[in-house]
């Protein structure tokens, strides 16, 4: 699949999926990516296109379900709010993480980043690690990478370890996330991280080559 | 032996006094602030920089401190906040000096909730000191996404004729061997800076000091050695106006009218670099280039600092 087609799919799919009632999602992009409109000659009936669109729609739905679950879980935890006392931040973060963990006790790797979604992500990311920008992206990932991060759903991101910077070109090629979630790439693996709870929500091994 | 010791102490004191000099004009009504970067180790180097900041404040009464990220290296427990922030800067905090933080790659984004960092609960934010014509924009260069870019575009557009100073962790221009220029972030941020006439950009991440030659009319500084040092990492390049990777340091800045005065100071109180930049351009937005380019000016006269 060519890159313009993939860009088009990402944008078109996310725009097409209706928003859930509760989640706060990121604003639409003002910056224009290299190519956001599918070319006129995109094969409408191409089964590969349909599979990718379906996978991304499914990803969006799974993310929305996580956010809904998180909102419910947050109701039983101390709220994350501004404070002069760092202990309150730590307690709220830990409380939220515990509540989410309990609500997702049976969560498994791939629950959100399904094999189909992972295949789409890999195709989207591969070109971003080639050429001039790709070399920079690899360098960024290498520079800031912590020695190791245990890949485990519901595990906290290890305290005191750096959070690797996400190369901007890579970030721009992934579907947008609600503010409660973010992507991080550790080594070759992609982590879906809950920012407030400091929790690994899901992960994808060998996301970048 | 006692005489010799007294002589050594006297000589050391004299040398320290000689090293302490303020090269900022201290004008009435000016905006005065300090800059620290990569400061959150909690070790003796952070403390020595903090002590020097205290001493300089007696002469140069800055109101706030900008933090370039990596504010807490070892974790985010209450003890980490105490060790790497509250204790080293206690004198300044007690004196009412405000700290404005940006996030580095070693920071848990939940630091945004810590009130003493004045981030308003956000990963990126803007503020303007009262009765000033300077607006600051703290960005999260770890995670430059469409949402942040749209926010920056909107906020800069609304900032009018103010001085526009952006600060964040990753330097868009750098002569560091370990990291170098953050070109990916630069590709996204610089066009917006130019569109709205950002004047000055401050960063850390590299554990040294570097003043970059103005790039497209924007003055860039790297202040990333306020507790960490990567000695010998600075590869002086065509970008470098002045660099120093031999010790720890911080920066003082004063803005008065169209002039910005700066002084980089080591943890021993020595002046590493000093000078000023002046806004010279028009203030209306003009897409494609900086509308408020800066130019280098001669350094301000020296003034001794009482210890």
What does this structure look like?
The complex is a heterodimer of chains A (209) and B (307). Chain A has helices at 3-16, 47-74, 86-103, 115-125, 131-144, 168-171; strands spanning 181-186, 189-194, 199-204. Chain A contains six helices and three strands, in the order ααααααβββ. In chain A, helix 1 crosses helix 2 and helix 2 packs across helix 3. Chain B is an alpha/beta fold and 307 residues long. Chain B has one domain (32-304): Purple Acid Phosphatase, chain A, domain 2, CATH 3.60.21.10. Chain B contains six helices and 16 strands. A seven-stranded mixed sheet of chain B has the order 4-3-2-12-13-14-15, with helices on one face. Classes of the chains: A mainly alpha (209), B alpha/beta (307).
Give the helices and strands, then pairings.
The complex is a heterodimer of chains A (209) and B (307).
Chain A: H1 3-16, H2 47-74, H3 86-103, H4 115-125, H5 131-144, H6 168-171, E1 181-186, E2 189-194, E3 199-204
Antiparallel strand pairs in A: 1-2, 2-3
Helix pairs in contact in A: 1-2, 2-3
Chain B: H1 2-19, E1 21-22, E2 31-36, H2 44-59, E3 64-67, H3 78-86, H4 90-94, E4 98-101, E5 125-127, E6 134-138, H5 146-157, E7 163-167, H6 183-196, E8 200-203, E9 209-212, E10 219-223, E11 240-244, E12 249-256, E13 259-266, E14 271-279, E15 294-297, E16 303-304
